[in-house]
Amino acid sequence: MHAELTSRDKADDLIALHGVGAIAVLVDRIADAVRLCDDQAVDSLDRLLQIVEQRFEEPWRAMRPLRN
To answer: What would the pLDDT profile of 38-56 be if each residue is shown by its tens digit?
Structure first.
């Protein structure tokens, strides 16, 4: 039985395959979806892009000093 991949799993897979290039891959896919007027794909890919961006920001957030 195959479990459906979550958006976070998809984001992690894209990062594993493309590294920081995952952002460019998603931007290209979003542009293609816009050209095809596929609003559903644009929304889905945009959510995925946000997750990928968050994944790359996580280490930097952890390194920031806390302010009093």
So the answer is: 999 999 999 999 999 999 9
